[in-house]
């Protein structure tokens, strides 16, 4: 399929593109809604929002199948939705209800849907990378046909677990795709101060497999690159490290004054809004009209509104259940 | 029944399970043709091949994390850490990932893995290769912690650990690897959370773990000559802890010495002592609870100092007598 | 400086002395030569006099304590002078030259004393505390064998044993090798005295045959439970009265052949007493009552329960409506019930429903006794034997057949006066049985 003179390599079909567009709005509205409820004090704890990064989550997950697995990060709501999670159960989890993905015991940083192949968000920076390697090891040992897609951020690429895991994946030639979402800041630390290579993707060279960088705000490019990496992994050609350059619009977490960056920089990135770019591409390619795009947007918004109702109706966990599930 | 060593018992438990269950595999540093730092996996790669006896780079964080991930997705891995001191490097994966995953995910995940690792002093390996850090992991809900003291216990407990759907930290003791006991050839399982009374007695209870079980038994022999009857209870698993057996024994004897090799400060002995003090055994205590553990010092290299830093038989004898006002 | 009062060595063999009594209290002025306390040695009892003058400052021991020779047992000195709270330990005999130094060391624990006394706590193990509590022993009275006098379980057990016996009894027990804990004391609060020990020791030397043991079960157990329940829950009062049975004997003599012919059963005194009792009960409904829960139930029927001894127990079948039956009918009823009872053929109906019971032991050499009420009934009549006695009748001594009746009643339901009125009327009825015909 050609989109604006760019060939879309994976054979996803027109309907899937429409769904992806709606999914990106769902992610954005979900994050905005969560932000709103945190501000109101109706959701407690902390949360890390991925507004502005929708293309990397949706684009990467668009090219994998239900049996494929992902590991996610503390900024994981987008990955969850992209891997097919039910926003109702996600919102219920944030409201701490038993109807949430983790029965109200995990919260924002620990949403997982193991059955759907989402091995979980992770509160430890870099903590999920060795887990993804383990998941890929299972596929390899059991000769199962799934690929593990491992999301992490630029900050995690400085953790020892990142380097150990990449090395293991390489020596064992595992079916895994590492996706580094470089959103330019590890909390307040600018990536240019914390990493002394031009691109994090270069780090793959140390471990003997390909590293590629991609415009993480361009979902088409994201899909093409990830597709190739996934196909390589699936056909036994080992891992790839993809660095998706993107930007988080909001602060690190709920209480971030963003003193470490300028409003001008933020505006520059907001102009590269991945959803608007995708809308433009799809309208121009005649996939849908502007009118249709607007109604998809409002459908997404409505789904998120409904998820709040669902969440609030869910029962609070009972104290009797406090000690359940510590051990199997 | 035939006698085999502790180290052979551990190997046999793994081999028998691996023959039965393809999901079980072992990964660790130098566990291939080298046979592991202490020779426990010797011969295994020849039988099971390099896929299932997976020789890894020196990456404790990576391999423990890979074990957690593979357990989460359907395998039943055994990680061998060369020295339990290295759990410091694997700690995030064990404590923040393995231990918590099931709870964090609302019960929708299981992490059936065993992390086997030799602990303890007595080999002259000094400060970074001689520690007993079991209290660290015992503190973390979600982990189980096993400390076998005999070859028989090692085989049965390892079988139970491999069958368990939770992450289990399995402490082997370096100086016990060569000790022998009667071990059945067939597979058998010793439930986690069942203490073993290694010697019955009436005057004083010693609760001892790992190598200290043997020192306690030696002390009991000596004390018997003086007419003091000592009961030696080996909890065998620290988590879950068989509180009932300990409480019953202490209620019977009214006196207790808790002894482990780990540093006394913050050690598991404090937990056991407190548990006793909180239990029904309190009203039967006829002397203050005694705790013995290593001195608060890194394990020294010099063999004499090394010995002096951890409890020895005369220390246990002395401590028992103290509870009887005879010291 | 306060002077020590110590346990004197009064003979070459004396190692300990037992404190029999203090003759001075703390704070009393003391003169030289005044008796301070009395002790018992292995040979004698003796009053010990003070070697010092001043104020008696401190006593460390209590009566019956065994105190080693030379142990400091108190202090005499100037008023308000400070002395240790605990007796100083005995100086080691082998190092007399260092006595001064060790005394110095002793001051260190003494310095800690005020803290301990401030809380007034006894150092004791949990086990010692439990045993002390179970045996109602004051821990402060127990001397501890542990470090810093910590009291252990064995110390308390020893204290229980030693507190149980007088020093003399203890000494005799020790001499005779008798275990004091086996002896029931006859003194105050069960204290074992000399006679208890000698008696026990003598008994021990008699040849003994092992007793046969029978398990409490079946009817025996039922009777046991019922008796215990009755005596534990019912405040019993027993009244007795002596009855002149002359006329009852006449009545029996004349009616016996008639009733025997009619029923085949021989009329006994029991039936006549039932008849009289049932009749009188009609006039005293309170005595024919039952106490059920918090209600007194005044029964309209008069059903007389008869205590019948059977093998291994006692059962109480009931003669219903005894007040409405003639002597022939009563004779037949009571005889058949008795037979059935012994054969174990009573129906449950026949064993229940009595409103008042009679227990007759007149066939034995029993004059009177205190019967136990058969709940929920509120009274029971005990019948003794008829025995000829000299009785004053109209100013002259006559021999009359006399019988004692014992009425036990439940004082919760009945007071003394109405019970006495009932017994008085019953006596009158039995002494004038023809009144029953009126």
UniProtKB/TrEMBL annotation, chain A:
Cited Pfam families: E1_dh
Entry's EC annotation: 1.2.4.1
Gene Ontology MF terms: pyruvate dehydrogenase (acetyl-transferring) activity
Classification via InterPro entries: DH_E1 (IPR001017), PDH_E1_Alpha_Subunit (IPR050642), Pyrv_DH_E1_asu_subgrp-y (IPR017597), THDP-binding (IPR029061)
Broad enzyme group: oxidoreductase
Keyword Protein transport: no
Residue ranges of every copy of the Dehydrogenase E1 component domain listed in the record: 23-318
Cofactor(s) essential for the protein: thiamine diphosphate
Function: The pyruvate dehydrogenase complex catalyzes the overall conversion of pyruvate to acetyl-CoA and CO(2).
Oligomer and partners: Heterodimer of an alpha and a beta chain.
Protein name as annotated: Pyruvate dehydrogenase E1 component subunit alpha
Organism: Virgibacillus litoralis
From TrEMBL, chain B:
InterPro entries: THDP-binding, Transketo_C/PFOR_II, Transketolase-like_Pyr-bd, Transketolase_C
EC assignment: 1.2.4.1
Record's keyword terms, sorted: Oxidoreductase, Pyruvate, Thiamine pyrophosphate
Cofactor(s) the protein requires to work: thiamine diphosphate
GO MF entry, a single one: pyruvate dehydrogenase (acetyl-transferring) activity
UniProt cross-references to CDD domains, sorted A to Z: TPP_PYR_E1-PDHc-beta_like
Domain Transketolase-like pyrimidine-binding: 4-179
Keyword Oxidoreductase included in the entry's annotation: yes
Pfam family, one: Transket_pyr
Keyword check for GTP-binding: no
Domain of life: Bacteria
Name of the protein described by the UniProt record: Pyruvate dehydrogenase E1 component beta subunit
Species name: Virgibacillus litoralis
Classification of source organism: Bacteria, Bacillati, Bacillota, Bacilli, Bacillales
From TrEMBL, chain C:
TM region(s), chain numbering: none
Ranges annotated as biased composition (Acidic residues): 79-98
Region (Disordered), start-end ranges: 79-125
Residue stretches making up the Peripheral subunit-binding (PSBD) domain: 123-160, 164-201
Keyword annotations from UniProtKB, A to Z: Acyltransferase, Lipoyl, Pyruvate, Transferase
Keyword Zinc-finger: no
Enzyme superclass (EC): transferase
Cofactors: (R)-lipoate
E.C. code: 2.3.1.-
GO molecular function: dihydrolipoyllysine-residue acetyltransferase activity
Top-level taxon in the UniProt lineage: Bacteria
Keyword Acyltransferase: yes
Residues in Lipoyl-binding domain copies: 2-77
Family, per entry: Belongs to the 2-oxoacid dehydrogenase family.
PANTHER family: DIHYDROLIPOAMIDE ACETYLTRANSFERASE COMPONENT OF PYRUVATE DEHYDROGENASE COMPLEX (PTHR43178), LIPOAMIDE ACYLTRANSFERASE COMPONENT OF BRANCHED-CHAIN ALPHA-KETO ACID DEHYDROGENASE COMPLEX, MITOCHONDRIAL (PTHR43178:SF5)
Protein name: Dihydrolipoamide acetyltransferase component of pyruvate dehydrogenase complex
């Amino acid at each position: 399929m050609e989109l604006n003179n760019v060939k879309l390599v994976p054979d996803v079909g027109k309907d899937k593109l429409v769904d992806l567009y709606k999914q990106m709005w769902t992610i954005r509205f979900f994050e905005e809604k969560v932000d709103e409820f945190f501000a109101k004090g109706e959701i407690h704890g902390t949360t890390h929002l991925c507004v502005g990064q929708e293309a990397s989550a949706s684009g990467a997950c668009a090219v994998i199948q239900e049996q494929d697995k992902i590991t996610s990060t503390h900024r994981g709501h987008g990955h969850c939705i992209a891997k097919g999670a039910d926003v109702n159960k996600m919102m219920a989890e944030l409201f701490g209800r038993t109807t949430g993905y983790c029965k109200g015991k995990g919260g924002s940083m620990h949403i997982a849907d193991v059955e759907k192949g989402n091995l979980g968000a992770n509160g430890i920076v870099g903590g999920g990378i060795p887990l993804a390697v383990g998941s890929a090891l299972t596929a390899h040992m059991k000769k199962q046909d799934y690929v593990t897609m491992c999301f992490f951020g630029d900050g995690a690429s400085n953790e020892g677990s990142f380097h150990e895991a990449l090395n293991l994946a390489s020596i064992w030639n595992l079916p895994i795709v590492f996706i580094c979402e470089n959103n330019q800041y590890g909390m307040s630390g600018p990536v240019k101060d914390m990493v002394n290579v031009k691109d994090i993707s270069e780090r793959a060279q140390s471990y003997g497999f390909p590293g590629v960088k991609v415009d993480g705000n361009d979902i088409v490019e994201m899909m093409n690159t990830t597709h190739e990496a996934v196909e390589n992994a699936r056909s036994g050609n080992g891992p790839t490290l993809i660095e998706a350059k993107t930007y988080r619009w909001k602060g690190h977490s709920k209480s971030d004054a963003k003193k470490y960056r300028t409003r001008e920089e933020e505006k520059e990135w907001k102009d590269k809004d991945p959803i608007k770019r995708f809308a433009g591409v799809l309208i121009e390619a005649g996939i849908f009209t502007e009118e249709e795009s607007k109604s998809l947007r409002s459908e997404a918004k409505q789904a998120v509104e409904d998820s709040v109702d669902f969440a609030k109706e869910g029962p609070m966990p009972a104290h009797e259940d406090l000690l359940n599930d510590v051990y199997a | 029944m035939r006698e085999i060593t502790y180290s052979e018992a551990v190997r046999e438990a793994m081999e028998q399970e691996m023959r039965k269950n393809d999901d079980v595999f072992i990964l660790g540093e130098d566990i291939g043709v080298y046979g592991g730092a202490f020779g426990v996996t010797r011969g295994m790669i020849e039988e099971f091949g390099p896929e299932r006896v997976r020789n890894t780079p020196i990456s404790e964080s990576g391999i423990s994390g890979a074990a957690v991930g593979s357990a989460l997705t359907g395998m039943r891995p055994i990680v061998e850490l060369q020295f339990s001191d290295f759990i410091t490097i694997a700690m995030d994966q064990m404590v923040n990932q393995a231990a918590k995953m099931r709870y964090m995910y609302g019960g929708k995940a299981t992490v059936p893995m065993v992390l086997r690792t030799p602990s303890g002093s007595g080999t002259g390996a000094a400060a970074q290769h001689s520690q007993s850090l079991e209290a660290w992991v015992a503190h973390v809900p979600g982990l189980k912690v096993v400390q076998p003291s005999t070859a028989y216990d090692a085989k049965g407990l390892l079988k139970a650990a491999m069958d368990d759907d939770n992450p289990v930290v399995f402490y082997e003791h370096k100086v016990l690897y060569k000790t022998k006991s009667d071990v059945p050839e067939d597979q058998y399982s010793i439930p986690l959370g069942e203490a073993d009374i290694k010697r019955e007695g009436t005057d004083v209870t010693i609760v001892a773990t790992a190598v200290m079980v043997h020192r306690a038994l030696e002390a009991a022999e000596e004390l018997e000559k003086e007419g003091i009857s000592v009961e030696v209870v080996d909890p065998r698993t620290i988590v879950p802890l068989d509180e009932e057996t300990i409480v019953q024994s202490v209620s019977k004897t009214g006196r207790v010495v808790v002894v482990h090799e780990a540093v006394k400060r913050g050690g598991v002995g404090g937990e056991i002592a407190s548990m006793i003090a909180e239990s029904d055994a309190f009203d039967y205590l006829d002397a203050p609870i005694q705790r013995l553990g290593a001195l608060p010092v890194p394990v020294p290299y010099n063999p004499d100092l090394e010995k002096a830093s951890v409890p020895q038989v005369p220390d246990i004898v002395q401590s028992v007598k103290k509870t009887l006002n005879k010291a | 400086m306060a002077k020590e009062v110590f346990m004197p060595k009064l003979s070459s063999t004396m190692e300990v002395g037992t404190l029999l009594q203090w003759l001075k209290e703390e704070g009393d002025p003391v003169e030289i030569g005044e008796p301070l306390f009395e002790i018992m040695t292995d040979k004698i009892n003796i009053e010990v006099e003070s070697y010092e003058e001043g104020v008696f400052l401190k006593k460390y021991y209590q009566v019956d304590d065994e105190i080693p020779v030379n142990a400091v047992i108190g202090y005499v000195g100037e008023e308000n002078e400070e002395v240790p709270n605990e007796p100083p330990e005995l100086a080691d005999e082998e190092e007399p030259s260092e006595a001064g130094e060790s005394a110095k060391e002793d001051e260190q624990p003494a310095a800690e004393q005020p803290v301990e006394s401030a809380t007034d706590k006894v150092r004791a193990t949990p086990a010692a505390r439990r045993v002390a509590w179970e045996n109602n022993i004051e821990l402060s009275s127990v001397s501890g064998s542990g470090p810093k006098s910590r009291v252990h379980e064995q110390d308390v057990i020893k204290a229980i044993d030693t507190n149980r016996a007088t020093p003399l009894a203890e000494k005799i027990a020790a001499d005779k090798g008798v275990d004091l804990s086996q002896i029931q004391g006859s003194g105050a609060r069960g204290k074992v005295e000399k006679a208890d020990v000698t008696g026990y020791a003598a008994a021990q030397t008699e040849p003994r045959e092992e007793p046969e043991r029978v398990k409490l079960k079946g009817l025996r157990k039922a009777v046991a439970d019922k008796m215990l329940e009755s005596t534990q829950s019912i405040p019993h009062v027993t009244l007795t009265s002596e009855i002149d049975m002359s006329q009852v004997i006449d009545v029996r003599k004349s009616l016996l052949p008639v009733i025997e012919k009619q029923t085949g059963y021989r009329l006994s005194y029991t039936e006549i007493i039932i008849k009289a009792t049932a009749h009188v009960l009609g006039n005293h409904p309170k005595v024919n009552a039952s106490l059920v829960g918090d209600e007194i139930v005044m029964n309209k029927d008069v059903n007389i329960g008869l205590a019948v001894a059977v093998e291994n127990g006692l059962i109480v079948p009931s003669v219903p409506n005894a007040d409405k039956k003639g002597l022939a009918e009563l004779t037949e009823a009571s005889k058949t019930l008795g037979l059935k009872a012994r054969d174990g053929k009573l129906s449950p109906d026949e064993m229940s429903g009595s409103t008042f019971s009679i227990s007759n032991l007149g066939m034995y050499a029993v004059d009177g006794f205190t019967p136990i009420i058969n709940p929920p009934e509120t009274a029971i009549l005990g019948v003794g034997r008829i025995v000829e006695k000299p009785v004053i009748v109209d100013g002259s001594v006559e021999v009359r057949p006399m019988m004692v009746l014992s009425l036990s009643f439940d004082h919760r339901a009945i007071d003394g006066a109405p019970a006495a009125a009932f017994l008085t009327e019953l006596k009158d009825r039995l002494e004038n049985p023809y009144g029953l015909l009126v």
